[in-house]
Each structure stands twice: as structure tokens, then as C-alpha cells.
Automatic annotation (TrEMBL):
<feature type="domain" description="Cytochrome b5 heme-binding">
    <location>
        <begin position="6"/>
        <end position="77"/>
    </location>
</feature>
<dbReference type="Pfam" id="PF00173">
    <property type="entry name" value="Cyt-b5"/>
</dbReference>
<protein>
    <submittedName>
        <fullName>Cytochrome b5</fullName>
    </submittedName>
</protein>
<dbReference type="InterPro" id="IPR001199">
    <property type="entry name" value="Cyt_B5-like_heme/steroid-bd"/>
</dbReference>
<dbReference type="InterPro" id="IPR036400">
    <property type="entry name" value="Cyt_B5-like_heme/steroid_sf"/>
</dbReference>
């Protein structure tokens, strides 16, 4: 995992828009979802990249199992 620590404000810049990568935070870890087709344009089933989606993933049909396939790019400072 990268050593980068993201603030909430920094994370919000990685929303998958205007050429930016799409990052999401889950349980303090920041993941890159840019290469996931389902995250086209930084959006996936009403969720938006650049945010802490820890609560949202618990409601998803795939749960946290999908996280093992994603690159970790840092941690979220709280």
C-alpha cells in the first residue's frame, strides 16, 4: 500500500471527473476504483468517488469481498 495519507478534502479531489482517478475510502483505507468498469465517470449505483463509503459498502450486495481486488493507494486521516 502507498504511504499517502489523505484528508477528506484531498480525497474529494479524486472523484473520477476531469481526468482525475477515482478513489474511495473504506474503513480508513483508500482504494483506486478507476479501472473498475462499474465506476465509470466516478459513479457506481448512486455512490460517488472521492468519499468515505464505509457505510455504503455494508449495504451493497457484494460487501467488502470486492476490496481484495482493488489497489490500495493510502489511508484516510480522520
Amino acid at each position: 500500500m502507498a504511504d499517502k495519507t489523505f484528508t477528506v478534502t484531498e480525497l474529494s479531489q479524486f472523484d473520477g471527473q476531469n481526468g482525475q482517478p477515482a478513489y474511495v475510502a473504506i474503513d480508513g483505507t483508500v482504494y483506486d476504483v478507476s479501472a473498475v468498469d462499474a465506476w465509470d465517470a466516478g459513479q457506481h449505483h448512486g455512490n460517488v468517488a472521492g468519499k468515505n463509503l464505509s457505510a455504503a459498502i455494508l449495504k451493497s450486495p457484494h460487501g467488502k469481498g470486492v476490496l481484495n481486488k482493488l489497489p490500495k493507494v493510502g489511508i484516510l486521516a480522520e
